[in-house]
Structures are given as C-alpha cells and as structure tokens.
Amino acid sequence: MTIAVTGAGGLLGRAIVDHLRRAGFPVLVLSGSLASSADYEVRRWRADCSWEQSAEMLRGATALVHAAAHIPRNQKDPDEARACAEVNALGTLQLLRASEAAGLTRFIFISGANILRLQERPVHEDDAIGCEHAPYYLGSKVLGEIYVRSWSSQALRTLTLRPSAIYGPGMVSGVFPLFIEQLRSGKPIVLKNGGSYRADFIWRDDVASLVAQALQGAQVGEVNLGSGQAHSLLEVAQLLCEVLNADPRLITVEPATDSAGSAGFSAVDISRAQRLFGFRPVSLKQGLELWLARRS
After folding, report:
1. Domain boundaries, position 58
2. pLDDT, tens digit, for every residue of 37-55?
3. Predicted TM-score (pTM) of this structure
4. Domains contained in the chain, number
5. Sign of the alpha-carbon torsion through 136, 7, 271, 222
6. What DSSP string runs through 167-220?
C-alpha cells in the first residue's frame, strides 16, 4: 500500500511522512522542491498541474494525503484570494480527479478547524462556518472541503481532517518558537491585549498518527482534531515558564483593549475523532514537554 503525500516539506507533512515510514508504508512524495531520498521517492508536482499530469504521477499509489496548501503572509490581503483558490480549492479538485483516474481508493484532505465560527463552547463539525479572521485562506479550504465531500464514492473514500492550531518540531515562526527563544535567553515576553488571544493547540504528532490510522479505514466526511481545550497566549507563556523552569516575571502583560483585535478561535469538539479513531491527544503541557525534550 503506497501512500502519496503532498505538502511533505511542511510542519505537518514531514511528520506524516515519518509516521507512515515507521508504520511500514512505502511513501511517494509529490513536490516541486524536495529531492528524492533513501526514505521516499519524489515526483515533480505543482498545484497547477493538470489532473491528467497528476494522475500519471499517482500511478502505483493506493491512497493520497493532501497536506499541501498556500498560506498567505497577510491573511487580510485580497490579492491573496486568487492563489488561495487556485491552490487550496482548484488544486484539490484536480487531485480528486487524478486520484479517481489513477485508481486510488483513499483520499485524505487536510483542512482546518478554524473554518468554524467562534463559539463559547467547543466547536462541532456541523457548526456554522466563520472565516472572518482569514477569509481568503479559510474560505478556499471550505471550497476544497466541498469538492472532497462531493467526490466521495465507494471506489474513492474521501475524508477531511480539520486540525486546529498545530505546534511542534519544525516550527520556524509564530509565537511558540519566539516564546521559547525569549525565555531560554532570559528575555521578556510582551503579551498584548492581556494575552487573551486563544486557540486550541494540538501536538503535531497526534495529527500525523491519526492520519496514518485513517488511511487504513473507510471513514468519510469531516473530523475535527484538537486537544479539546483552548488556551490563551498568557497560558501558553506560563506553561512554557513551568516546563523551561524560567522566571515567570519575564512575562509582561499589557492591558486588554476593546480594539485589540480577534479573540482567537474556539476549543474543538473531538468527540467524533474519539468515537471513530479512539483519538486521545496529549495536553498542551505534555506536548510542550515532548517538544522541548527533542530540542534539547
């Protein structure tokens, strides 16, 4: 059972490839930038390839994990809308057509739980869509999900996985690497708006492990993935101080203001993932401990 993977150079994609290899699956990477190695074959692919070209590249594969995406530098820039639509939506459609033509039996699309509207409670798969924070990126993911669901059949079983905010080894930007570097250097962390921005942070390997498991099943539809609990940036900083044994006085919290921007994203209801896959994610503190143990 050979598994094709797009986005293998990304934070999640690298972990997916590693988990598949450890599980004994031959891996075929579709990429325009990575080189073949002893661990996997690479076939030159771009999101703007025709479905016929992609089908040829998929020959010999049994399943595809589509983790590649265009993520804008500026989520509010309308000039990013075209690239998001072409890569994240139309590129997904082309791969669906290619997968069917190449005789694949499984297609897993990596979307995101942040497409769901902010709620006081954990968000469920069937909750309303709300892409206001990143309309061009998240909107293109919604359209990709529509294509994936519409293409599901007995021959090609499609599944959309919606991880929340992924963290872990391989992160080169964002608050996690920044906070870690600052605290290890004894430098202060300044949190704006009371450090109130929240998200459901999920350990990278929890997502990758479930992807490997889902490839061997026949589940269809959409499945949320998260820790099941949202944490504020203040809580993240405090946990990092605890794990790193850093001085909590390095955290400076600026007062909250009404105009400081988004409150972030909701916690994710993971009951469907628990029911279908026995999903048991680690806590944020456990994930940070695992990550920092590897970094040291």
Report:
1. 3-167+203-228+268-281
2. 888 999 999 999 999 999 9
3. 0.94
4. 1
5. positive
6. ESTT--SSHHHHHHHHHHTT--EEEGGGG--EE-EEEHHHHHHHHHHHTTS---
